[in-house]
Write a structure and sequence with these properties.
The protein is α+β, with helices and mostly antiparallel strands. 24% of the residues lie in helices and 20% in strands. The strands form two sheets. A three-stranded antiparallel β-sheet has the order 2-1-3. The chain has a two-stranded antiparallel sheet with strand order 4-5. The chain binds zinc ion (ZN).
Length: 115
């Protein structure tokens, strides 16, 4: 394991890509199952494919790679300043399930809903 802390970069760019509905981190579904979401350990996605499917979405548009979230204006604009470096979706169209929304709230995450 690398000492440098950053999110997995998507291994492939295709239909397997999905975005975390809480922080919008983009990885393949397999990567979410393997390591969970680096920003959202509280969602308990690691090793749980059903949970991953529940907490991620393929309905996202655009993607940016954020290497230095603390100093990137783009990251600030996307509310990513406190997130780990990685690839993030620009916009996510998803209705966050109520139980997930509750967990996000308990962990200080704001829900940015579409619409
Ligand atoms: Zn996340």
């Amino acid at each position: 394991m690398s000492l440098e802390y950053h999110a997995d970069v998507p291994r492939e760019f295709g239909k397997n890509l999905c975005a975390c509905i809480s922080c919008h981190l983009v990885k393949t579904l397999d990567q979410f199952v393997d390591g969970g979401c680096e920003n959202c350990g509280f969602l308990g996605m690691e090793g749980d494919k059903d949970r991953c499917l529940e907490c991620t979405t393929v309905s996202f548009q655009g993607m940016i790679s954020v290497m230095d979230p603390a100093s990137s204006w783009c990251a600030k604009w996307l509310h990513l300043a406190k997130m780990v470096p990685g690839c993030y979706a620009l916009s996510v169209q998803v209705e966050v399930p109520p139980d997930i929304k509750e967990i996000m709230g308990e962990n200080g995450r704001r829900v940015h809903e579409a619409g």
